[in-house]
Amino acid sequence: MRRDYHKWFSPRLGRDMELLVFGHAGMPAVVFPTSQGRFFEFEDRGMVGAIANKIENGEVQLFCVDSVDSESWYNRSVPPRSKVARQVQYDEYIVHEVIPLVKQLNWSPLRAAVGCSFGGYHAVTMALRHPDVFTAFLSMSGAFDMGNFLDGYHDQDVYFNQPTQFLPGMSDPWFLDRYRHNTYVLATGVHDQCWSQNEKLGGIMRAKGIPVRLDVWGDGTGHDWPWWQRMLQTYL
Fold first, then answer.
1. Among 134, 141, 174, 226, which is most exposed with the fewest C-beta within 10 angstroms?
2. Average pLDDT for residues 97-104, to the nearest whole number?
3. Are 194 and 143 in contact (CB under 8 A)?
């Protein structure tokens, strides 16, 4: 399997950022790590190995990015406004720095955002904020409520970085048309602590006429890597 390491100084984030690329062809998928996770997490947790045959066969190419969660949502030393401002910068880094690399290495018109747990938040939020950039998302046990990080603070950036807030009021035909032509999957488990958040988001999407596959896995499925490996094999 082809494995490439990339590192550069991000002018939008003001520091070095790293990522790993697995594979040589197929649908490109930008992979977001779990809360405060690193770019090598997907490999270390057996997720890359779980779909090694698809990667080696040129069916999918993974772009595993780093997070700045410890500088944004999980940064307890800064006020809420600074947390969401850092998230906005991260959004710009993905769209204006990572995506150009993806396009340089892979000409596919399809592009997925993928993540587990807090990575599911990033995948869904990025895909719904930029439906022309990402044509699909796969969220496994995603967590979508940022309220616990904000101590009651709210502004426009908070609003537009929580799909459960901005989707209900979405009326822009440019966004809605693209949503309805893209592919969205929410996978969770019957014993997953994020199950209700997935049900809520799925309901909002359906109410807006946005096609979404919401699968709640049985058989004791919870919030952990062994189940996410199976989900990745199933959906990607």
1. 174
2. 98
3. yes
